[in-house]
Amino acid sequence: MPAYQLGASIRVNILRVASVLESMPGSEIVVVDDGSTDDTFAQAASAGAARVLRHEVNLGKGAASRTGAMVATTPTIVLLDGDLDLPPEQLPDVVDTFLQSDLDVLVGTKRYGMSGGRYPLKRRFLSTIFRIVTRVLFRLQVSETQTGLKVLRRDFAQSIMPELKVTRYAFDLELLVRAQRLGAKIGEIPVALRVGASSSPLSVSTLWEMARDTLRILRWSLRR
């Protein structure tokens, strides 16, 4: 669970995930505080996660996800955003689907959950544009890359994570592009989205970062 500036909610969120994982013996929660300036780290530590790691400075969600994945000890790794925009109650079904498959990566897709007023119109529009652009440029096996719930085999995750260069919003895209180039088996599954999730507007700087990093990934992929 990558977390940034979630001091007000991370403890409750971890306890909620822990409650769900009671039905999944052998599970552990790893939280990576990505350089928060509030009490995210202290609150996460007080919730009893198996491990709480900290970046001294903010490096980006991708970097935090990579740090967590590299220390995980379970055979299956779930990447789940710490804000719980994607309710953890669906984890048992998602993981069970993954375990019954022959996949290396299972990607949650929230595009159906974005309807019905759950996402602002502008966010839905930008997500659709990004999805179309990346599908055309990279010919990915999945219809969506950015949903903050993914399941990976640990051995595969820990072999590919050190190769990733993007540390922020386009991290998910690079992960899937590199996985596909390696011949990984990738699937997708619809996931539920919390009502009112991610309603904050995207800043110009965020959009610029995503565009820049997408071009970096494209240049790398064209050299392969």
Describe this structure in words.
The chain is of the alpha/beta class. The chain has a single domain (2-222), classed as Spore Coat Polysaccharide Biosynthesis Protein SpsA, Chain A (Alpha-Beta Complex). Helix content is 42%, strand content 14%. It has helices at residues 10-21, 40-46, 61-71, 91-99, 121-138, 154-160, 171-181, 204-222; strands at 2-3, 30-34, 51-55, 76-80, 105-109, 149-153, 186-190. The chain has a four-stranded mixed β-sheet. Helix 1 links the parallel strand 1 (2-3) and strand 2.
Query: How are the strands of the largest sheet arranged?
Result: 4-6-5-7
Number of separate domains: 1
| Coarse morphology | globular
The fourth-level CATH homologous superfamily is Spore Coat Polysaccharide Biosynthesis Protein SpsA, Chain A
SSE pattern: EHEHEHEHEHEHHEH
What's the β-strand tally?
7
- Rg on CA atoms, Å: 17 Å
List keywords for this structure.
224 residues, alpha/beta, Spore Coat Polysaccharide Biosynthesis Protein SpsA, Chain A, 3-stranded parallel sheet, 8 helices, 7 strands, globular
